Amino acid sequence: MVSTLKTEFLSLLSVSFVSENGVVAAGHDCRPMLLNSDDRGCLTIVSKLDIPKQSIRRDMSAMDRFRNMDKRATTEDRNIALETLHQSSITQVSVYEVDKQDCRKFCTIGIDGAMTTWDEGLVITNFPKFCLPNKLFHLTLIFQ
Asked: Is the dihedral of CA 116, 119, 124, 128 positive or negative?
């Protein structure tokens, strides 16, 4: 079965099954999304899993100034940080912890190598047997 979902978000790069009908998908939008499939195979977005953090205005320290010169080729204090945990595209979504049939934690890895483990009260039930950690089914989408 093939299901297509058109969204206003940027392209997805990686998806992982977290339940019989649920997948976590992430990509260039820098935040993972929980998708659900109904009995007919139609995909819907349940929620974005990364809540934007509140920005705090502060003076730039010498270390921050040096870091910006190195990473961003600038010495100015521009607000270029994203309001997400990941500051770059997410390239991989993997199941991290399973308890019986419940997906308790999953992790995402950004293109910059940053890894985030998601476990904020997340319990995804009916974890499919073919996705247990020793037989993890991982699907990576490639857009051309």
From this structure: positive
Closest CA to 88 of 68, 69, 116: 116
- Phi and psi angles of residue 42, each rounded to the nearest 5 degrees, phi first: -80, 130
- pTM exceeds 0.70, yes or no: no
49 within 8 A of 31, measured Cβ to Cβ: yes
Instruction: Give 45-113 as a 3 state SS string.
Output: EEEECCCCCCCCCCCCCHHHHHHHHHHHCCCCCCCCCCCCCCCCCEEEEEEEEEECCEEEEEEEEECCC
Q: Where are the domains of the chain?
A: 12-51+60-140
Reported as a single tens digit per residue, the pLDDT across 32-84 is: 888 888 888 788 888 787 765 555 455 567 776 666 665 655 555 565 667 77
Q: Tell me how far apart the alpha carbons of residues 64 and 125 are, in angstroms, rounded to a whole number.
A: 42
